[in-house]
Design a protein that fits this description.
globular, 4 domains, 547 residues, Growth Hormone, Chain: A, mainly alpha
Length: 547
């Protein structure tokens, strides 16, 4: 039997100071500290996307090869995220959190200094591992730092970082890359990471219940769940590769994608069966026996699915159809992200007073309605119309993120908060990965379908189609081209118009599907147990008795 003390070693004073009589720290100060690291980590998921072309050119790599810069980060992030609760339980939450900040900061520096693509991918792999623990541990720290009646406001701070960062990431990444260098996309993490580490080391302490749990583990000892870790790493790692590379490799037409899908499915089928038999599992799947927690995880999965799917569609529409630059496309997303700053605190204040089921239903209705409004736009839509619809969608997201998180943690023991946070963050991240992959595939298929239909329509119009072709040919002849060249240019122009219209229709189809998905989820909100508004300073009246 391997003792926990053998795994963690004696905790150094500077990384895990004794929690006897810890200094009294305002929980809002703690919230600001952990929000800083969470924002930094979530931002790094999207900020490098717009820099891939520059990275490929600078490091003499192909465009397809450069996408591994994103995939490598997401794979290790997906592996570490679900086991972060186990690490926090075993080696101490504060200690694990500080190590994540250190790894993320150092690997960010290595990313910026990387002289070749393989070394950049290796550094991004380490960065994803460090970042994987930051989101869930930050959320569990917030859950423990605030009393139940104030958790809504705490999760508002967390929600601002996790929703705002993906919205401004592409814009900020494009600005930095265009005006400085792609390397500064990673270098900006270094001073922020150093500052966050210094603040965290001064202000964060493990709560007494967690210290007692670690002491109990050291006394009884336990075995490391190696099989659980292996199944989890293979299952979620292969799944992330499949989702990230599926569209590029034509999905199951590729043996590479097929084999990784089989590995992922087999591992994830065996994983819960194995983990339920373990006394100290890597991933505490037993938490999903709580009805509220299980339903909230499903809702959070679809929240990530729609949020990231729609965030993919808007830049695709504005850049490919409206001709916006990357920075202009990012500016369409930014007003929605900024509105979150003002709305989430209001929602956080309402959570203790209003039935969260009604708030979630309202959020789904607003967000789903905004997505359906997107289906009414056309290629002549102006910037402000797009920005306002996106802002309306963001208002709906504010009514989803905080109530879902609050309902998820209701009834979860404090000692399980790190494990619960790991699982619900995994649900959101997986939802985002599925949303990006499936929305991208649906768009491509619908575009091809509409293109075939439009070509057939143009051919069937007879005189109208021939007249347009003749007019375009005459235009190019008058511009100085030969008749043969003019005919080819006219056909190409018709093809460009058809392709643009097909893309436009495909975008509208995708928005329609995402909107209906959110509206269809509304009845499931009321499967949650009704949470009675909390009295100030105490637990809800229907809360289970403490043990």
């Amino acid at each position: 039997m391997i003792l926990v003390s053998q795994i963690a070693g004696p905790p150094p004073a500077e990384m895990n100071p004794p929690s006897v009589n810890p200094p009294s720290v305002n929980p809002w100060v703690i919230a600001m500290v952990v929000a800083l690291t969470t924002f930094m980590e979530v931002l790094d998921i999207s900020i490098a996307n717009v820099s891939l072309r520059h990275i490929a050119g600078d490091l003499s790599a192909g465009q397809d090869e450069s996408t591994w810069v994103l995939t490598s980060y997401l794979v290790t992030n997906a592996i570490v995220l679900p086991i972060s609760g186990w690490f926090a339980y075993v080696v101490g939450r504060r200690r694990f959190y500080l190590w994540c900040v250190v790894i993320f900061t150092i690997s960010s520096l290595l990313c910026g200094l990387a002289p070749s693509l393989p070394l950049l991918i290796l550094a991004r792999t380490l960065q994803g591992a460090g970042g994987g623990g930051l989101q869930p541990i930050s959320q569990s720290i917030l859950a423990d730092s605030f009393p139940p009646e104030k958790r809504g406001m705490a999760f508002a701070v967390y929600g601002i970082t996790t929703v705002l960062a993906p919205a401004i990431g592409p814009t900020l990444g494009g600005f930095i890359t265009d005006n400085f260098s792609w390397r500064w996309v990673f270098f900006i993490n270094v001073p922020v990471g150093i500052f966050a580490f210094w603040l965290s080391r001064k202000l964060l302490w493990d709560p007494p219940h967690l210290v007692e749990a670690q002491k109990s583990l050291r006394e009884r000892g336990f075995k490391i769940d190696y099989w659980g870790f292996g199944l989890l790493a293979v299952g979620f790692g292969c799944m992330q590769i499949v989702l990230d590379k599926g569209q590029q490799e034509d999905w199951f037409a590729s043996s590479f994608i097929l084999y990784f899908t089989i590995l992922s499915c087999v591992s994830l089928i065996i994983l819960p069966l194995w983990e339920l038999r373990q006394r100290d599992p890597m991933m505490d799947i037993r938490l999903l026996k709580h009805r509220n927690f299980a339903i909230c995880n499903a809702l959070m999965f679809f929240l990530g699915f729609v949020l990231f799917g729609s965030t993919l569609l808007l830049p695709l529409f504005t850049q490919n159809i409206l001709g916006y630059s990357a920075t202009q496309a990012g500016m369409v997303l930014s007003p929605g992200g900024i509105s979150i700053l003002f709305v989430m605190p209001i929602v956080g204040a309402l959570v203790p007073k209003v039935d969260v089921r009604k708030m979630i239903a309202l959020g789904l209705l607003i967000c789903g309605g905004a997505l359906l409004i997107f289906t009414t736009i056309d290629a002549q839509v102006d910037y402000w119309t797009l920005a306002m619809i996106r802002t309306l969608q963001a208002l709906g997201l504010a009514f989803l993120f905080i109530p879902i998180n609050t309902a998820a943690f209701a009834g979860i023991p404090l000692i399980k908060s790190s494990g619960a946070s790991a699982i619900i963050n995994l649900s959101r991240n997986l939802g985002g990965s599925f949303g990006i992959a499936l929305t991208q595939t649906f768009f491509a298929q619908q575009q091809q379908k509409h293109q075939v239909a439009l070509v057939a329509h143009v051919e069937s119009t007879g005189g109208a189609g021939a007249a347009y072709l003749e007019a375009m040919t005459r235009h190019f002849v008058e511009a100085g081209h030969t008749f043969t060249e003019s005919s080819q240019l006219a056909l190409r122009q018709i093809y460009i118009v058809v392709q643009g219209q097909a893309a436009m229709l495909a975008v509208l189809d995708a928005f329609w599907l995402l909107g209906l998905l959110f509206l269809a989820l509304i009845p499931f909100c009321f499967l949650l147990k009704k949470a009675t508004p909390m009295a100030k300073g105490g637990p809800p009246r229907d809360a289970p008795p403490a043990h």
